[in-house]
Amino acid sequence: MNRLDVSTECPSCGGLLDFKEGSNAVQCRYCGSNLLVTGRKQVLSYYVEPKADGHLAAASVLTARKSGRAGECRITGVRLYFIPYYRLSGHDLRWERATEDPGTEDSTPPALARNSAHADAVGMDVRHRSLLLPLAGGLLDMFFGESASSGTALPGAPSAGMLKEIESVLRARGDSPGNLFSGEAQLAERYLEKNFLACSLSGGGIYSLGVRTSALALRLFHEETLSVQGRIVAADVSIEAALARGMKAELPESLLYRAVIGRILSLVYFPFWVVELEYGGKRSLSLVDAVARAVVTSDLPLSLYEVLDRTTAEAQHRRAGFRALVCPNCGGDLPVKPDDVVFVCAFCVRAWQIYGGDLREVPYRFAVVRASAREGEAVPYLPFWVLHTERGDGPRRFFLPAFRYRRLKTLSDIATALTRTQPEYSVSENTDSAVRSDISYGCYYDQEDAALLALFVREGMKMKQRAGVVEEKEEISFSAAELVWFPFSIKGPDLVDPFTGRALLKNALL
Ligand SMILES: [Zn+2]
Ligand SMILES: [Zn+2]
Fold first, then answer.
1. pTM of this prediction?
2. Number of folded domains in the chain?
3. Which domain holds residue 229?
4. Is residue 146 over pLDDT 70?
């Protein structure tokens, strides 16, 4: 997935502070401050700084004009507008009815497919239940015992630096032993990334407006800064509508179930120059991308001004914020792990989960299971969310990886295998400092992502049982989410799960 860079100033020293979109922690490279990035799971607002000034924009329009039509034309006005876009990204998991040649559909791993970029959106089915789930944050609130949702966007976003070598190993070995669902349903995964207008400009003759965000640096939205430079166009598409729009696309016939994990919805204000010109007594408007300096569209009616200038009840903007990344209990420094959602204090051993703008304590335990490692080699512990359900039928506990792995399919497979097995184990209260020091793999997914994955896994298990028949709406609720670290055995390049013997390629853990 293409994670954009966010650029701002360090709240401690004022130095340039850069981090990847979706990061939960950052260290200032100038003053060394460790900072918690707040606003996770919320729809955060950003803007992109214009690179071209009004003169350059006008010159671009005149140049484009000359190569097109002959004749005198003159510029009669130039104005800068910040036009809002929604940007939705996530990791899309789908059960699809197996095709005649299973394997071709999903043969391109996400890391290799990601260059195909924006058009990666996939289908959303009305049968499909992921939209019936609370819009992000809601499930998390439930686990934290909150009644109201504090935000809407789901978090996450995979890493950079995907190594080709690891991909080829994963592909060569088919990633995990056996396809659990061959012949019935198969799992497809891909990254979802969509950018689309957050306002309607159809009254001004614009129905869609492409924006290339891939190489852009985002800045935290700041109304005063923007309104000095230009006009901020009101975002009048609601978050709910944006999510529906972002999740929607052509619906593949073969789609059985879909879950989008690690969803982030952001609002990005992109700068455009509106250049007004007169030609043969007629006035029209051209739109110039103020970053690339390219004329995006021309011959627009003057009514575009009204559309751009209209005021609507403006959405409340939320911005990422910063706080000292310290343990709320003892004040000790927490480790700067940008992708983690849980920070374990090395001093008082409490664990803290980022929740909106807060750190909340999250209990955790270690499973006591025999795991083998070579002498002198520490046993690696990997975190799982154990979700409990009170339903009479079906599994009572779901085991969902909280760690990140190069392929989500593998995590789904291991979750399925463990959930089928319903392993029994005793737990320890993490008092052994040797064990605690082995927490080298952090939690990338939170309880909400785990719940989405649990529903996905459950769907797959039902399909297996009923040969592809998807049951109609069946509610499931989770009564508790426990964070448990499981010891894995080391076998060559693999980490082997203690209950089902499934192997994870160590180098594919992110
Ligand atoms: Zn600093
Ligand atoms: Zn502490």
1. 0.81
2. 1
3. 47-309
4. no
